[in-house]
Amino acid sequence: MENVVYQGMTFEPFIKREEIQKEIQRLAVEIERDCQTDNPIFLCVLNGAYVFAADLYRAINIPKSEITFIRFKSYEGTASTGAVTQIMGLVDDLSDREVIIIEDIVDTGVTAVQLRKKLADYKPKCVKMVTLLFKPDSLKQGTKPEYVGFSIPSRFILGYGLDIDGMARNLPDIYVLKEKETQN
C-alpha cells in the first residue's frame, strides 16, 4: 500500500483490506450468535457504510434476513458539521423486528443517537449497531456500539467506503491523514 493524495492532503496506509475482511468474518459470527429472531433487518447508513454493509451482509448466514438503507449527512471535508441531515428515509415496517444498524464509523455518536431515537418511533423489537470503525476518544453522545470492528484514534480516515467530499470511497484499504497534515 502506498500513500494517496486527495485535495492536496496525503493519506498513508492504515488498515489493509485483508484485516478488514478478517474483522467482518468475526463480526458476522458474533451477530449470528446474538441474533434473537430469524428475520432481522439490517439498516445500512449511506453513503459511507455501503461497502462494509455489502461485505458484512454476505458474510452473515441468516437466510430470512433483509437489508434496507437510510441516508444521513454530517461531514464536510475532514470535519463533522455537528448537524445531521436525513437525506433518504425509511420505508420498511420495522415493528417488532430486530434491527441491526450498519455504520461505517462512529465518532461523535450524534448520528447514532439521532438514528436510535428515530427508530424507536417504528417500534422495533430491539435495535443494535455494528460499526467497522469506532473512535472512543471522540464520543460525545450515546454509548459504544454493540459490535465494533476496530477501535481507532481520533484521526481523519478514508477508503473502503469512507470519503472526503465524495472521493476515495472506492479505495479497498483504509488510509489515515498523515500527522503533519492533521487539522485540529
Properties at a glance:
184 residues, alpha/beta, Rossmann fold, six-stranded mixed β-sheet, four-stranded antiparallel β-sheet, 10 strands, 36% strand, globular
Give the topology, please.
Layout: E1 4-6, E2 9-15, H1 17-34, E3 41-46, H2 50-59, E4 66-76, E5 79-88, E6 98-106, H3 110-120, E7 126-134, E8 147-151, E9 157-158, E10 174-177
Parallel strand pairs: 3-4, 3-6, 6-7, 7-8
Antiparallel strand pairs: 1-2, 2-10, 4-5, 9-10
What is this structure, in a nutshell?
This protein is of the alpha/beta class.
State the helical fraction.
Answer: 10-25%
Which class best fits the helix and strand makeup?
Answer: alpha/beta
The total of beta strands comes to: 10
Strand content: 35-45%
Low-pLDDT segments, ≥5 res:
none
**Mean pLDDT across every amino acid position:** 89
Order of helices and strands: EEHEHEEEHEEEE
- Biggest sheet: strand arrangement: 5-4-3-6-7-8
| CATH topology assignment | Rossmann fold
**What's the architecture in CATH terms?**
3-Layer(aba) Sandwich
Using the CA coordinates, give the radius of gyration: 16 Å
Count of helical stretches: 3
| CATH class (first level) name | Alpha Beta
Bulk shape: globular
What kind of sheet is the major sheet?
Answer: 6 strands, mixed
